[in-house]
Amino acid sequence: MTHPPARLPRSAVIREVGLRDGLQSIATILPTAQKIEWIRAAYQAGQREIEVGSFVPARLLPQLADTAELVAFAKTLPNLFTSVLVPNLRGAENAIAAKADLMIVPLSASHAHSLANLRKTPDDVVAEVAKIRAARDASGARILIEGGVGTAFGCTLQGHVDKSEVLRLMQALLDAGADRVSIADTVGYADPGMVRDLFEDAVKIAGDRFWCGHFHDTRGLGLANVYAALEAGVNRFDACLAGIGGCPHAPGASGNVSTEDLAYMLGSMGIETGIDIDRLLALRTRVAEWLAGETLHGSLWQAGLPKTFGLPAQALSA
Ligand SMILES: [Zn+2]
To answer: pLDDT tens digit string along 29-51?
Structure first.
């Protein structure tokens, strides 16, 4: 393996969110058996963090109605860290009962997006996190709480979102009892300069509790934004296999960075992910069959890995 440039992390985690962020935004409802196959194959390809679904009412998101079953399956795979999204205390109670490892509570830094998406102000969501923390502590469960600050670079409804507001809300989430915080570019407004600027300050505030970067590839800058976040010291990223998905409440948003392209970029730079890319591409082929008719994204699957991928640096220069 080549070595990563000195200023970049030596290893990184790709959290698969295709089963949640991806599937919630497309029309196809994948049967539970196929989702289980997806989780199993992703695990066999080396993925160790998977967001398997969301505890929201099935009438709102019928695509994700089987989340409890998926958590139960994921917990049978040794050392698989299983996360779920929860919009409120009721969802959190389900996540605690299901014994997930981590629950993500989304907060929109855009006031307008927050009202449209969650029918709450950002500060209402902070208050909900405090209730979730109290419920978690009372339950004795070890599940982690992640506060995810979305629309951190602006949104289609409100336009501009102040960086100071993003950082204020991130601090408020930590103060309310979130164990981890993350930042999301929900609608693909960020560029690498903006990411580096915001993420450097976010890491200064949250330290080790800064958990994850979540980038949508709406305008083709997803991987560039990951690189900027790596430069800021962040080494965990959400990604969707085949780049599926978007955001139902952010018109125009397309999918997350594609898992396979991100695994390739990190691997090519010598940043360890533990992922077997050939296995991941084989899984992508199967998922593409399951999702026939849906728009998929990504580049690596078309060209395959370069012949030089994974060779030691000295072999390349010899
Ligand atoms: Zn997203």
So the answer is: 999 999 999 999 999 999 999 99
Which pTM value belongs to this model?
Answer: 0.95
Structural fold of domain 13-317: TIM Barrel (3.20.20)
Domain boundaries, the chain: 13-317
DSSP conformational letter for 77: S
Q: How far is the CA of 156 from the centre of ligand 1 (A)?
A: 14
SS3 at position 79? coil
Quote the ligand 1 centre to 191 CA distance (angstroms). 16
Please say whether the beta carbons of 98 and 64 come within 8 A. no
* Distance between Cα 165 and ligand 1 center (Å): 19
Q: Residue 133 Cα, ligand 1 centroid: separation in angstroms?
A: 23
The DSSP 8-state label assigned to residue 200 in this structure reads: H
Report the catalytic residues: 247
Q: Do residues 173 and 147 touch, judged by C-beta distance below 8 A?
A: yes
The structure tokens 């196809």 sit at: 28
Are the C-beta atoms of 300 and 290 separated by less than 8 Å? no
Distance CA 240, CA 214 (A): 10
